[in-house]
Design goal:
The protein is about 45% helix and about 15% strand. By secondary structure, the protein is α+β, with helices and mostly antiparallel strands. The protein folds into two domains: about 90 residues, no CATH class; about 120 residues, Cytidine Deaminase, domain 2. The chain starts with 7 loop residues before the first helix and ends in a 7-residue tail after the last strand.
Length: about 230
């Protein structure tokens, strides 16, 4: 008993609390500890978990962080990065399964949850298009372009061309604002109108353009901009 690491009992208690109370019963750093146990089983992971939360802010921001930035934290090696990115990949895959091949109108909250998981913590702007068939079922989700911190060039003809290739009859555009403010810019509004007009000529409907950020999201349709 004396030879056992001091953190062994702590790990057991954390696992018991997770199974009994669920993840909401644990603060972010303890949930992160549980993830890190497998990466470095012979080390006390509480200091590293707290350091990661201190650097990035939350559990979601830690698992979504760029690997290069994660490695800047003392104690983070390849096994830790792999463990964190596995959690992120699993979350994205689960969220995607909730929306793909389903009518998006009846699954709007799940669709927004998926988009937030995919894009909210990106440090560069990312522009993606969700392509729908005549039943408003999501048939494709594609990142069309990535840009700088505050600018992603979007070409309306490319959005419409790809919709025609996929046989889509409607699209939803989504992009993120790394600044954290989901308010559409004048350029966002103008580009949205150009895509809508280009699509209308060929029978492709623009249902919405949603801007995602860490603080939430805005729908241009809801705002009366489409």
């Amino acid at each position: 008993m004396a030879d056992r690491p001091h953190y062994e009992g702590h790990r057991r208690r954390l696992r018991e609390r997770l199974l009994k109370a669920g993840p909401d019963g644990l603060p972010d750093y303890e949930l992160l500890e549980l993830v890190l146990f497998g990466a470095q089983p012979r080390r006390d992971m509480k200091p590293l978990a707290k350091a990661l939360i201190g650097r990035f802010g939350s559990f979601a921001e830690v698992v979504s962080a760029d690997p290069a930035l994660l490695r800047e934290v003392e104690g983070v090696g390849e096994s830790v990065v792999a463990a964190l990115k596995t959690v992120q990949a699993a979350a994205l895959r689960l969220a995607r399964e909730e929306v793909i091949d389903r009518p998006v109108i009846g699954s709007w909250r799940k669709l927004m949850a998926y988009c937030r998981a995919s894009m909210a913590y990106e440090t560069q702007e990312q522009f993606r298009v969700l392509y729908l068939n005549h039943k408003n079922v999501l048939i494709a989700d594609e990142v069309q372009q990535r840009g700088t911190v505050d600018h992603t060039p979007v070409y309306p003809r490319e959005v419409v061309k790809r919709a025609l290739e996929l046989g889509a009859t409607a699209v939803i555009m989504v992009h993120n604002h790394p600044s954290g403010d989901p308010t559409p810019s004048p350029a966002d509004i103008e580009m949205t109108r150009e895509v809508r007009e280009a699509g209308e000529r060929l029978g492709i409907t623009l249902h919405d353009h949603v801007i995602i950020s860490k603080r939430g999201h805005n729908s241009m349709k809801t705002m009366g901009l489409i």
